[in-house]
Design brief:
alpha+beta
């Protein structure tokens, strides 16, 4: 499956997204013919900011139940960006690299690299979750393929972003799952076909996430337990 393919291939920077039917493509034209395309109801906004296809997408009626697709999506993201699995891939990739550097950094560049390494050692190396994984990976690469240590450090630094991004995507996708469950599949499709715009707001004072649907100057709010 997809998770094993990513893991066994050592793909560290696995970019996942939900399928989005782009305008003027064969996919969009086919979905239009089949009456499955949500023309203008596929963009989620949070506090007025558009979100990329990792958190929107699926702007059409899916052949599988939508909730099943979203749950599988969350499952894959959690799996591949689990710290242990990520560092396993980073180690695998680093051990198979054959770097051939032709550029020798000057003194200033070396100082910057050392400063970046020390900063990374504090952020990741002292973290309770990633610390032992980070140092274990560095030591293994240093002992077996020292020429790839720079790539190992870079991949480790990238995990800081991937961890935050994966949590963000999983959180919003879980809200979408809860929303779909609260109104069931067919009513959800009806809302989307009405070209309604979905806004997601968080109201921490009451511990609820509110999804408001606006259409023809009318609004409807659905409250979901967070």
């Amino acid at each position: 499956n997809m998770m094993r393919c990513i893991q066994d291939s050592g793909i560290c920077m696995a970019m996942l997204g939900k399928l989005y039917a782009l305008p003027n493509t064969q996919l969009t034209r086919r979905l239009q013919r089949e009456g499955r395309l949500f023309e203008n109801g596929s963009t989620m906004r949070k506090l007025g900011t558009e979100i990329d296809q990792m958190t929107s997408g699926l702007n059409f009626v899916t052949t599988r139940p939508r909730i099943d697709v979203l749950r599988d999506y969350v499952k894959v993201i959690k799996y591949i960006y689990d710290p242990k699995r990520y560092y396993e891939r980073a180690c695998y990739t680093s051990l198979h690299l054959k770097p051939n550097y032709h550029h020798k950094p000057n003194f200033v560049r070396m100082l910057r690299s050392i400063k970046a390494f020390l900063k990374l050692a504090v952020i990741i190396g002292l973290d309770k979750t990633t610390g032992w994984l980070y140092w274990k990976t560095l030591l293994k690469v240093l002992s077996k393929n020292p020429g790839a240590i720079e790539a190992t450090i870079n991949l480790s630094a990238m995990f800081i972003h991937f961890r935050k991004q994966s949590k963000f995507v999983v959180g919003l996708t879980n809200i979408e799952i809860a929303h779909s469950k609260s109104i069931t599949e067919v009513p959800y499709h009806d809302l989307m076909f009405q070209e309604e715009k979905i806004y997601v707001n968080h109201t921490p004072n009451v511990g609820l996430s509110v999804i408001s649907h606006f259409h023809d100057d009318r609004s409807q709010s659905i409250q979901l337990s967070s």
